[in-house]
């Protein structure tokens, strides 16, 4: 490290970012910003993807991040370099789903952004476990001055142990993860493609595996086919781009699912902190416990 470099971080592209002082104004993709907040790093601004509203952040993705005082320049490929730089960041934290491609920004925008400000990219794709993703965020947060609260790891360990004990020897607990897509269909998650769902499977939770077919991350089916799976617990995508559950109340197949299953709100772009993961596992354990009564 040179005399003028007091901060550096090597991201998941293998690219080294450096600065003459520790970054204090972090502009982050919403998922990354919410994760850093759980580590005690408050982003100065967050941005969304093409799935998000251009005017306001998706609260399903922001976790415990208090939005008052946090800037939001917008979302998706319509964001340009000038708009992002108007937030006056000294560091941008983005995510990737593989190949080092910055998620949520046009390729040219991401390229030219790095000409003005350091950009750190964390890979949150299916090639990594949730623990590995979380560790990368932990290392980044520590480089920015965070100290990990000891209770967070303890709470996560307790949540994991509770869930593992709850499903040990259980017969027939069926958990279905889905994203509502209008009145006609639903996207069923392929568990192996989502790190959070893989954790549930590793702990012994019975996750419904959709039939093979088109769709890398999801299998798209009609609501009648989803209802026929007769899940005990449904993890329902509550992001802004999913159909709100309130709009499905009158749908007979969704009503059948909701009447027989415990419904847990699910954010497929999870906050990758021990605190957030412990909360999610606790919600799933509570639902399974109620379903087993």
From TrEMBL:
Pfam families: Peripla_BP_2 (PF01497)
UniProt xrefs under PANTHER family: FERRIC ENTEROBACTIN-BINDING PERIPLASMIC PROTEIN FEPB, IRON III DICITRATE-BINDING PERIPLASMIC PROTEIN
Start and end residues of each Fe/B12 periplasmic-binding domain: 74-258
Main localization, broad class: other
Subcellular location: Cell envelope
Gene3D superfamilies in the record: Nitrogenase molybdenum iron protein domain (3.40.50.1980)
Family annotation (CDD domains): TroA-like (cd00636)
Alphabetical list of InterPro entries matching this protein: ABC_transptr_periplasmic_BD, Bact_iron-sidero_bind
Keywords: Signal, Transport
Protein name: ABC transporter substrate-binding protein
